[in-house]
Predict the structure of Cytochrome c5.
Amino acid sequence: MKLTRKILSTAGVLTLWVFNVQAADTARAPDDIIAAHCVACHSVGLLNAPKTGDTAAWEERARQKGGLDGLLASTIKGIGI
């Protein structure tokens, strides 16, 4: 369970960091970034995206991607977009 929290927390922070780097001159709230870039797919599992709060799916995705580094790469590149 601790690994799951660490993975989800780190993935969330890294996702927010990626979007903040792209728009460094414009400060935005994390909820705004998530609403603009993540919710469309992750709220409903569109294109097999792991749903927000589904720890089992996120753990499996982390295993498939080789851990947090793989999740970060997917965050930057995007999947199914």
